[in-house]
Write a structure and sequence with these properties.
By secondary structure, this protein is α+β, with helices and mostly antiparallel strands. Helix content is 30%, strand content 31%.
Length: 207
């Protein structure tokens, strides 16, 4: 499929995203991230106890990636291995934070939306850079002026761009992310990133 057809498909799938839902109490929050070396990728899903911020469980998925990096189509490069890592967790998390965007995306369907929709899981996108929308104070506005995300401070000169992925409201997404932040970082994502890099390094040495 050409990028243009994939862009249209994203627009169609964005209609399936549920921008809300009763999240309730959160006991386990997963972070999902991947590390790369060439075309080798290792994804980690790290499930964190919300009260202690300690790792309850971690699962990995590795593989070769063939889809190139195209802005706006990042999900086609990374979503599959993130989903496989998440599906391998023994205890299903209450919510997942993905390193990437949710509806704050040119077609309203970033990687957090694709992961959440495929797994039917409340999902949040948290990214270090803004991909789409206008920044107005602590909000991200879409083309029609609607709120599509929020901006959180993440240390000196740094920002975190948060948007919903699936089955969660923006206020609930912000509540989860803010509770998970320590020293400017999002604990589940930081741990998933660290573990993925460590596993990638170990895997590279065996090739």
């Amino acid at each position: 499929m050409t990028p243009e057809r994939l862009f249209r498909l994203q627009g169609e799938l964005s209609r399936l995203v549920e921008p809300g839902g009763a999240l309730g109490e959160v006991g386990l929050v997963a972070g999902a991230d991947a590390a790369y070396k060439g075309d080798l990728a290792v994804a980690c899903a790290a499930s964190i106890d919300m009260e202690t911020m300690e790792v309850a469980e971690a699962n990995f998925c590795s593989g070769r990636v063939s889809f190139p990096y195209i802005p706006g189509l990042f999900a086609l490069r990374e979503a599959r291995i993130l989903m496989e890592a998440l599906k391998g967790l023994r205890a299903r998390p209450d919510v997942c934070i993905v390193d990437g965007h949710g509806v704050a995306h040119p077609r309203g369907f970033g990687i957090a939306c694709q992961v959440g929709l495929a797994l039917d899981l409340p999902t949040i996108g948290a990214a270090k850079r803004r991909l789409f929308g206008a920044a107005e104070g602590d909000r991200i506005l879409g083309a029609s002026g609607e709120v599509i995300g929020a901006i959180l401070p993440a240390g000196p000169g740094r920002r975190l761009y948060v948007s919903i992925g699936h089955r969660i409201s923006l206020p609930d997404a912000l509540r989860v992310v803010e509770r998970c932040m320590r020293k400017g970082g999002v604990v589940p994502l930081a741990i998933a990133h660290k573990l993925a890099r460590a596993r990638l390094s170990a895997s590279s040495h065996t090739i």
